[in-house]
Amino acid sequence: MTRKFFDKKLVLATHNKGKLAEFSGLLAPMGVTVLSAGDLNLPEPEETGDTFEANSALKALAAAQASELPALADDSGLAVTALNGDPGIYSARWAGPEKDFLAAMQRVEDGLHAAGNEDRSAAFICVLTLAWPDGHTEVVRGECAGKLIWPPRGEGGFGYDPMFMPLGRTQTFAEIPADEKKTISHRALAVEAMLNKCF
């Protein structure tokens, strides 16, 4: 049975200040105080799962149990059809320790060429897990389908945004204004699903 969220505080299982700001804004209407794992000096667990769901749950449960507060974690990435869903859960790792997403995008483009370049469809995926200290979890998924373009375009966004064009659009995620992107992105859709389910 779905568990509703009635607490006033929530830990966001991230050390990323940008992600904290984004989620704090999305959750603001709920009147919830959002703390980050970074603010609480919680350790970052190793992402050993083989799905977005597994890694999201792993991070949320670790933060909930360490903080003794409910915790929200996301795991997200780019799934490219012609690359059998890669880079998927390894999206950030494809950019290496230097977070070189230009190199990561080139790797995707090279893979598309090797696969024949006919199918350039892809989706950004975000899985959110809300976990309580007693181990209960609620999980939702948000997906934004699109196609990959080359060369990359746009100065906004981050990661693979400059090569991803959502379906029905003529601009990449890096060209779409931030206010507009946050209404159609995989993360926005996942947050909306979680709010509808648990809040």
Give an account of the 3D structure.
- The protein contains five helices and six strands.
- The chain has 199 residues and is of the alpha/beta class.
- The protein has one domain: Maf protein (Alpha-Beta Complex), CATH 3.90.950.
- It has a six-stranded mixed β-sheet with strand order 2-1-3-4-5-6.
- Helix 1 links the parallel strand 1 and strand 2.
- It is globular, with a radius of gyration of 17 Å.
- The protein starts with 8 loop residues before the first strand and ends with a helix.
Secondary-structure map:
Elements: E1 9-12, H1 17-27, E2 33-36, H2 52-67, E3 71-80, H3 101-114, E4 121-131, E5 137-148, E6 164-166, H4 178-184, H5 186-198
Parallel strand pairs: 1-2, 1-3
Antiparallel strand pairs: 3-4, 4-5, 5-6
Instruction: Look up the CATH topology.
Output: Maf protein
The secondary-structure element order is EHEHEHEEEHH
CATH-defined architecture: Alpha-Beta Complex
CATH C-level name: Alpha Beta
Shape: globular
Cα(first) to Cα(last) distance is 14 Å
Q: Which terms would index this structure?
A:
199 residues; alpha/beta; Maf protein; six-stranded mixed beta sheet; 5 helices; 6 strands; 31% helix; 22% strand
Task: Describe the structure concisely for a colleague.
The protein is an alpha/beta fold and 199 residues long. Helix content is 31%, strand content 22%. The chain has a six-stranded mixed beta sheet with strand order 2-1-3-4-5-6.
